[in-house]
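Many groups now describe folds with learned vocabularies. In that spirit, our science desk offers one protein's residues alongside their backbone shape tokens.
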Amino acid sequence: MKRFGLKTLLATASVALLLTGMPMMASAQEPQSGGTIVELVSSEPPNLVGAFGGATTLHEISDKIFDKLLEDKNGEYEPRLAESWEVSPDGRTFTFHLNPSVKWHDGTPFTSADVAFTMTEIWKKFGGILAYGRITGVETPDEHTVVFKAENQIAPQLLLGTLGNLQGLVLPKHIYENTDYKANPANLAPIGSGPYKFKEWVKGQYIVLERNPDYYRKPYPYLDGIVVRFERSANTRAAALEAGDAHLGVRSPVALRDLDRIEKLDNLAYTAAGSEGAVWLQQMEVNLQHEITANPLVRKAIAHAINKEKLVSLVYAGHAKPATGPIPSTIPSYTKDVDTYGFDPAKAEALLDEAGYPRKSDGKRFPLKLVVGNWFETQSQSADLIAQDLADVGIDVTIDKPAIPAFIGQVYKNYDFDITLTNSVNYSEPGVGSLIWLWTKGIIPGVPWRNASHYSNPEMDAVIEASLVEQDPSKRMEQLHTFQKLAARDLPIIYLVEMDMINVYNKKLHNVGNHPRWYYTNWEDLWLEH
């Protein structure tokens, strides 16, 4: 067997915050236990169980309550609920040895039955299609051993990277068995095994998490609790952080143009660290079902017409960089050896002429509808700049900014767009997020964040499918490089920028951004000076 070595509001809303008045202590100070922090987020989640999928805030909170078999740190794996694991030489058997000291928050022992239930009833039905869809059997030889079986090979990085990511949260069998999983009341008051327990949810205001005293990874967690407060306005979030009414805002909680000012404040700091293994791309899906955008010359012209550097400077205030493809530059499998499309309006004009779309008497070539996923302020700003860039080469763009639910239906169900402006989150294991956008089997009407472009290329499918089974890491790396080269050649999606996700925090808070997927992890080692 092949063994993988491992590197190894407040408790109540009325309690005063532990923020003001104390001098900064030396960075070598030992972590302190205690204290409750207030975190600001822009939206309220629909529930607290990320195993069923959902928006970013849901996953961020869920990862503090639930735990995974292992933790993926940008391609390196650390034990969590599983103390160790082995992969058979043929890539068909994955054996996990569970930590016997783990308990659910209600005191029930955690066992292999929970993992088996989660695999068969949750993971295979609600997420991780590329990895979990290949599991054909689960065995539990004892309470602390679980074995996943597959009829065909699974690339070890694919399964381990999925288990160690958002799609690897284990649910309690005794809470969910014989229930309507997605309607279970526990989704709003969850029972997990992670470092923080659910305490309270005041709808429209905040969620309170409290320290799990029985957490199996001592001395964690350091904090007594986390209050997750909902604030839609970036200005309100900035004011709360500056006034000391909150300790933390994640995922660029304030206007990017405010960061230079915030950096000069005595009590606040910011960092872009903590998203190297969960990178947000701003990207443009191109509808290949439409005659004009099905033409590869048109897609290349659009790519050359868009000034990515202007997006970086004017929209993102320098807190981004131009993207080259579906795998971002901080991911281990990234390659820069792909076709690139620098800003070149003259070349764009020549390509459009070659494609058979000359300027008409009014100076326009053809119209396009740009449908914008308008969940960030930067999306709307980018759309306006992109429309002007395309107008400069004769493309007449109409911008459509539907509400988020309408955007999902319009783009991923009705395919009513020529081009979109959307985002993807791309993880250290490309099978978790990147591959599905460009796979023919990713064309799933009604399912968001899949292959809305209707890109179907047998060459690309063969490369993706080979990467799902390859046992040799070096050969798999070559396959993932080919994946990026084909994506850049064919341009079913035009990748615009890699976005920095900024964490703004009080200087008394330590260990912010110390994991490549930091805001999607459990914050067990986050601590507060007091």
